[in-house]
């Protein structure tokens, strides 16, 4: 049983009805990044290949516990605290919108000023069990907004997430908050749970994984216009367990037990043989994502798909970049850093996105100029 399923069974099922969520009363405001503002365009974007950040009006995300920002804020207090089981969705690197937090939506909103879809605040973990079991009723519309990610999700669970996304967008279209013709940025970040189960689950191997992601992108293409999809590549999640193994003072067990999160989070990472399988399969997952992107290279003015490799050297992370709740999920430090490097990559052609990034707490936020466009080639 994974850590998330264990925690859900142990703590959440008896109390999920009585634990309140934490809605945010603050409307997302632009993060002050000190960059020059872009002069307003005199004419709208000609196509999806002509987008600037200020053209984006809707942002959404599909993914797993990293996009949901599970455990990002770390342990709060010395004793058992229900907040240790929260998804801190407002700080998610790709879809969070908490004020004064470095996230991609806040960077876009600095220029757009009226971006809709970023998740705000925190709520109790929402979880998918296994390949296709995602209990209904876990979304919190006022917090999740268009962040459809759920902890524990694998690629087979993306259909469940797109259903939530489309239903929520339809509601917003009806009340006029946004329009179907508004430019949209949809981020897909999925696969960590697939590779973590690849030693036992054939449905999580690279071939079916790629087919699941492609099916999801096709659903988006058929259902949306004026849409840019960015697919983010997998990180080497197997390295997280290795990099945190020596930090016994930081990686504490659950109070009153010997249960340490990183010993159970990724089932295929705890034996030499299975680590070898993960290492051998890892390139194939990102190749599968790149093949999905290649399906959409034919010119299309209203729909495009780009690949954003997340080539980060996890061994370069300070331990504080990993949550001390489970010593597996990224902390707020890592989320902010991911935001900076992925933001910069939006303006780079694919040929210049092959660098491996070492953690840099002082990473500079890129300031786009009026000639910059979000690159689709």
Question: Concise description?
Answer:
This protein is α/β, with parallel strands linked by helices and 377 residues long. It has helices at 3-12, 104-112, 141-144, 158-175, 192-196, 206-223, 238-244, 272-294, 332-345; strands at 56-63, 86-87, 123-124, 183-189, 227-232, 303-308, 312-313, 357-358. Helix 4 (158-175) packs parallel to helix 6 and helix 6 packs parallel to helix 8.
Structural topology:
Layout: H1 3-12, E1 56-63, E2 86-87, H2 104-112, E3 123-124, H3 141-144, H4 158-175, E4 183-189, H5 192-196, H6 206-223, E5 227-232, H7 238-244, H8 272-294, E6 303-308, E7 312-313, H9 332-345, E8 357-358
Parallel strand pairs: 1-4, 4-5, 5-6, 7-8
Antiparallel strand pairs: 2-3
Helix pairs in contact: 4-6, 6-8
């Amino acid at each position: 049983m994974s850590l998330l399923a264990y925690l859900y069974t142990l703590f959440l099922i008896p109390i999920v009805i009585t634990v309140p969520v934490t809605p945010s009363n603050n409307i997302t405001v632009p993060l002050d990044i000190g960059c020059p503002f872009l002069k307003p365009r005199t004419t709208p974007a000609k196509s999806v290949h002509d987008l600037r950040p200020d053209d984006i009006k809707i942002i959404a995300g599909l993914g797993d516990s990293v996009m949901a920002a599970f455990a990002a804020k770390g342990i709060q207090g010395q004793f058992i605290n229900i907040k240790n089981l929260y998804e801190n969705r407002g700080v998610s690197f790709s879809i969070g919108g908490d004020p004064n937090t470095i996230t991609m939506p806040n960077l876009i909103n600095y220029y757009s000023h009226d971006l809709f879809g970023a998740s705000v605040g925190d709520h109790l973990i929402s979880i998918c069990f296994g390949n296709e079991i995602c209990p209904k009723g876990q979304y919190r519309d006022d917090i999740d907004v268009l962040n459809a990610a759920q902890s524990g999700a694998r690629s087979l669970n993306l259909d469940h997430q797109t259903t939530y996304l489309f239903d929520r967008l339809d509601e917003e279209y009806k009340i006029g908050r946004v329009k179907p013709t508004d430019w949209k940025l949809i981020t897909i970040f999925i696969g960590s749970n697939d590779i973590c189960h690849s030693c036992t689950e054939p449905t999580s191997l690279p071939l079916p994984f790629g087919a699941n992601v492609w099916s999801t992108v096709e659903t988006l293409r058929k259902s949306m216009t004026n849409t840019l999809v960015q697919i983010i590549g997998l990180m080497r999640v197997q390295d997280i367990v290795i990099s945190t193994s020596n930090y016994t003072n930081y990686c504490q067990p659950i109070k009153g037990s010997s249960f340490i999160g990183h010993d159970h989070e990724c089932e295929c990472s705890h034996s030499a043989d299975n680590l070898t399988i993960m290492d051998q399969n890892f390139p194939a997952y990102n190749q599968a994502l790149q093949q999905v992107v290649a399906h959409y290279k034919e010119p299309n003015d209203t729909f495009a798909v780009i690949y954003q490799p997340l080539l980060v050297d996890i061994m370069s992370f300070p331990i504080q970049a990993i949550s001390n709740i489970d010593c597996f999920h990224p902390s707020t430090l890592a989320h902010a850093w991911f935001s900076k490097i992925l933001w910069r990559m939006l303006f780079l052609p694919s040929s210049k996105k092959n660098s491996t990034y070492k953690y840099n707490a002082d990473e500079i936020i890129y300031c786009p100029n009026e000639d910059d466009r979000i690159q689709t080639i």
